[in-house]
Amino acid sequence: MPQKPTIVWFRDDLRLSDNPALAAAADAGAPTVCLYIFEDGTPHLRDHGGASRWWLAQSLKALDASLRARGHRLVLRSGRAEAVIPAVVTEVGAAKVVWNRRYDAGGIAVDTAVKALLKDEGVEATSFPGNLLREPWQVKSASGDPLRVFSPFWRAHQRLDAIEAPLRAPQMMAQPAIAIDSEALDSWSLEPNRPNWAAEFPDEWTPGEAGAQAALSAFMEAGLDGYADGRDRPDRPSTSRLSPHLRFGEISPRQIWHAVQMAAGMDGGRDVAKFLAELGWREFSYHLLFHWPDLADANFQNRFDAFPWREDKTLLAAWQKGRTGYPIVDAGMRQLWRTGWMHNRVRMVAASFLVKHLRIDWRAGERWFWDTLVDADPASNPASWQWVAGSGADAAPYFRIFNPMLQGAKFDPRGDYVRRWIPELADLPAEVIHAPWEASRQVLERAGVRLGETYPRPVVDHDTARGEALSALAEIRGPAHA
DNA sequence: TTTTGAGTTGTTCGA
DNA sequence: GTCGAACAACTCAAA
């Protein structure tokens, strides 16, 4: 009598190494069925955005290829997990289902319901921690409460037990005896066509576990040294670009943590500490999402419920298309559209511009990023938008309004980043490239720039917009009301 | 128990 | 030119 199979339910953990659910299944020696469910359309779950759908398609192909190299395959199904899981359990006669946890309210609700359904059927269901360094509820203040400020959170996080070493990919996984139907990936229409706006994505990215490991190695070779300062420079390749790999769990934070610690020796150093703190921000975002489940919908500070946001479709569209007339903002928005990613420093400037200069609700920006970022993350995206808006935990001071010209001059001093993404400004000298409207007529003419024709004039005046933002913020000043 | 100081990412103004 | 102060309100931990 062969052992009954175990179903490994893959979600945002599309990797074989350091995958606790997969390792547990393999160690138990039962035949392993590797399953992915496309759950879009499930109520209270957030559907993938467009760029995420592209990445997901590539990542599923990569995972399937790795499994096939081991004589396995990835079984694809779509629909609601509460229906799909019991159906597959019946089809294969599984005795057990395992998965790695997720932390958004909708996902938790689905997983809890699935677990209950399986229990009723006498099928074992076990979830594992695999996608964070620590479970969100493990980090607490001295009084046992969740933390709302990053620094105390990160200190408390680091005071806990050492981070365990990552798990190896399973050597052996027994095959199920029967063939299992799989849907065709193409039938999900994850990849765009007419137009194929992702045409340039493959030049930028290698989704999948091998691509993630390669990105980590490349970063440790070239980017980690000098990271503390270099990470602010969008004109340089000095960030890890691991975010989409982490988003889909092609690499675990624990693998990154250990690789970087190993490379740095025990004492670390400023660059390593700064980089690991970025993992800390991801942990903090999940901590917030777990304890405040409506993070993507509701102002963390409810006094912002009274903020006089502007509904202006024209301005929102100008921002989305990279046509605000502020080069650093537009370069970022165009990088986002073309590559599915934007440098972190520019994200802050572009987000601040939408929220403060245009006074458009941060949720509109959050949704745009959700749709266009390959790393669109259910925790980091809303947490960071709220941080920029000033409505979030650990709020930025309300008076912190990024000046796009100063930010450009400081972090893209030669203008190379702007030139790369806004070719119509490529011939402008560095002195005026972050404020073309201040250039003389001759300089503009020599560079072939006609403001209002080849490149927009600023959609708002910085000083005016700043003043208006400050008075709008003054309106909602004062203690938060319960 | 109360107090104190610091808190990812900034800008402007006036001396 | 440089430099420090000012720009809220609140959380958290150390003293």
Topology:
Layout: E1 6-10, H1 20-28, E2 32-38, H2 50-68, E3 74-78, H3 81-92, E4 96-100, H4 105-120, E5 124-128, H5 150-159, H6 201-204, H7 209-222, H8 227-230, H9 243-247, H10 253-264, H11 270-291, H12 313-321, H13 327-339, H14 344-357, H15 362-372, H16 380-389, H17 404-411, H18 416-421, H19 441-446, H20 462-475
Helix pairs in contact: 3-4, 5-11, 11-16, 13-14, 15-16
The structure holds a DNA duplex (15 and 15 nucleotides).
What's this, in brief?
With 482 residues, this protein is mainly alpha-helical. The protein is 45% helix and 6% strand. It contains 20 helices and five strands.
Outline the structure in words.
With 482 residues, the protein is mainly alpha-helical. Helices cover 45% and strands 6% of the residues. It has 20 helices and five strands. A five-stranded parallel sheet has the order 3-2-1-4-5, sandwiched between helices. β4, α4 and β5 form a beta-alpha-beta unit. α5 crosses α11. The longest helix has 22 residues. The model has no long low-confidence stretch (mean pLDDT 94). The structure holds a DNA duplex (15 and 15 nucleotides).
Got a strand count? 5
Shape: globular
Helical proportion, percent range? 40-55%
Side-by-side strand order of the widest sheet? 3-2-1-4-5
